[in-house]
Amino acid sequence: MFTLNGKVAIITGGAGVLGGAMAEGLALAGARVGILSRTESKVLQKVQEIEALGGEAMVLVADVLDEEHLKRAKDKILKEWGRIDMLINSAGGNMKGATIMPDQNVFDLSMTDFAKVTDLNLKGTILPSIIFGEAMANQRQGCIINISSMAAQQAITRILGYSASKAAIDNFTRWMAVEMAQKFGEGIRVNAIAPGFFIAEQNQKLLLNEDGSYTDRAKTIIQNTPMKRFGEPEELISTLLWLCSDASSFVTGIIVPVDGGFSAFSGV
């Protein structure tokens, strides 16, 4: 098992399904974890859950699109824990208007919602990376993990706004990896995880009927996933810990799929 004893992590979207699982994984590996999200009640709940497991966590109530919020969160964690070793950019999501519904086509796209989704996923990754990454640059050591998606790898119908913004995250991951290594040294690495299909809050209605059975879209996903199932949030943890630990000290600028073989399968 990878150990992160004494390390300090911040995870945006850390109160969500996938972010919460990764936050717990970091804490159980020995890291002190700042849970950053907009909703205080959810952040408090996740912090309490981590503490109940014997981990150490901090409440960081902030909007990833608000620069002042993020600066206050950085100041708080530096004051209390002295450093920032890891940033996991898990915050993100989708909106109905940026999604093409079955009875719509691309000409029905809401550019307002498209812009909001792009801001949430892309700006909501870049802005925390700049603000918290500055602490890493000062230390000349740190690790940033972005969360990509299978939607960035190939065309997946309907989710135009989400796909475009996640594809941009892949590019930003590579760009930021080069920038940090060239200007601040080999001690700062930037990588991404590209989850396959996991059932979470943002896609639950697309994948599950009210009775819990799979929708037609979910059945198509399973058909095109060689392992023939959806992922479990805990299955992201081992890849996260590897990328955050010294075991991957010569790894930067990559996007690691955790997808049950979805990205490898041609569908034939």
Secondary structure blueprint with pairings:
Blueprint: E1 8-12, H1 17-28, E2 32-37, H2 40-52, E3 56-61, H3 67-81, E4 86-89, H4 111-139, E5 142-147, H5 160-184, E6 188-195, H6 204-207, H7 216-223, H8 237-244, E7 255-258
Parallel strand pairs: 1-2, 1-4, 2-3, 4-5, 5-6, 6-7
Helix pairs in contact: 1-8, 3-4, 4-5
Describe the structure.
- α1 crosses α8, α3 runs parallel beside α4 and α4 packs parallel to α5.
- The chain is 43% helix and 15% strand.
- The chain has a seven-stranded parallel sheet, sandwiched between helices.
- α1 links the parallel β1 and β2.
- The radius of gyration is 18 Å and the shape is globular.
- With 268 residues, it is an alpha/beta fold.
- The protein contains eight helices and seven strands, in the order βαβαβαβαβαβαααβ.
- The chain starts with 7 loop residues before the first strand and ends in a 10-residue tail after the last strand.
- The protein has a single domain, classed as Rossmann fold (3-Layer(aba) Sandwich), CATH 3.40.50.720.
